[in-house]
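S.,

Sequence below, as promised.
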Amino acid sequence: MRRPSKPLFRNSPVAYFSLFSIAFASATLLPGGSEALFLYLLSESLNPFVLLCVATLGNTSGAFVNFVLGKYALDFALKKGYMKAAHLQKASSLFAKYGAWSLLFSWLPIIGDPLTFVAGMLRYDWRKFILIVGFAKGVRYLFVYQAWLSLAS
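The prediction came back faster than expected:
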């Protein structure tokens, strides 16, 4: 007779650390996405509020790394191919046109990471950066959570 499998992450700090780490990495210039793990952990009945906070904090922290890289390592990132000049140009024009409001799109794939990089490159105020980007990333995870709730019902 087959025993039911135990949830892999139930009430484990490893679950939250994993979510933070993946959310952090996916917000940097590295490719990746944290939504799959976020949804999996929701399905494992972990506290949704804590998951939202951990994912938002990890993703915002990763975006801040982009900001710092933009401020101090632009030439290196372009030379090594960590960022494509075309993405940087598109993000620069968006930031030039809309200013800080463009950071509300920092959650978008492809264009979001370069936007946070450009904000650092243009020496945008880091406190405002964290507030705007944190808000945008939090709303994205909240939207994913709401979608999961509507599909789980």
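The chain is about 70% helix and 0% strand.

Coffee later?
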